[in-house]
Amino acid sequence: MNSSKISRYCGAALLGALLCSNSFAQPVQNNAVYLQYGLADHSADSWALGVHIPWNHWNYPLGSGLVTGYWDIWGGQLRGDYQGSNRSTWVVGAKPTLRWRADQGQSPWFIEAGIGVSYAVNHLYLTDHKDFSTRYNFASHLGIGYLFGEQRKNEVSLRLEHHSNAGIKSPNPGENFLQIRYARHF
Q1: Percent of the chain with pLDDT over 70
Q2: What contacts 56, CB < 8 A, 6 or more positions away?
Q3: In sequence order, what are the residues at sequence separation of 6 or more whose Cβ sits closer than 8 angstroms to the Cβ of residue 185?
Q4: Structural domains of the chain, count
Q5: So what's the pLDDT on residue 59?
Q6: 91/78 Cα distance (integer angstroms)
Q7: Pick from 33, 43, 78, 172: most CB atoms within 10 A?
Q8: What is the distance between the alpha carbons of residues 16 and 28, in angstroms, rounded to a whole number?
Q9: Residue 118: which H helix or E strand, with range?
């Protein structure tokens, strides 16, 4: 499955869950701060610092689990080799994200998906292998994670995130990052 199809499916899932929901009895969730690192092809990497801002009072029962949502707001860098040196592109972004937890939302395990926008603050993302044509891009992800520790205030997740402009302008090579994230809820 190519990355544009994944982005479309993530977007459709987010929209469908939002439109179909009629449940507003969710307990209040905690905000979180996270640090994330990712790797891509050809020695490209990324890091981000961000926050989760939960959609309190919104949930959707799905199968044996519960879907909740949060805003993922971040800033960070995309880096790669470019003309003999390492070039960093600073990015900021925001992404609505849906998270499903089994056992009516009580399981420490979760899966999630999100699609949002990012903006390259200082210049286009360019590497020896990829030339982005727009500063605005879409960022979509699929992930799996685990909540642990006292009152499950810690979480770790593994994510596959795709950045591209969804064909708005050529070239549109896209970049896929395999990411590890640690978040602390407060």
Answers
A1: 85
A2: 26, 28, 29
A3: 30, 31, 32, 52, 152, 153, 154, 155
A4: 1
A5: 96
A6: 7
A7: 78
A8: 23
A9: strand 109-120
Q: Does pLDDT of 25 surpass 80?
A: no
The H-assigned helical ranges of the chain are: 3-20, 102-105
The domain that holds 81 is classified in CATH as: 2.40.160.20
The angle formed by the CA atoms of residues 7, 13 and 17, to the nearest 5 degrees, is: 150
Record the tokens describing residue 24, joined without a space: 């507003």
Which residues span the domain enclosing 150? 3-185
3-state secondary structure of 95: strand
Return the pLDDT at 95: 98
Q: Give the separation between CA 85 and CA 127, rounded to whole angstroms.
A: 10
* CA 108 – CA 36 distance, rounded (Å): 20
Contact 137, 177 (CB under 8 A): no
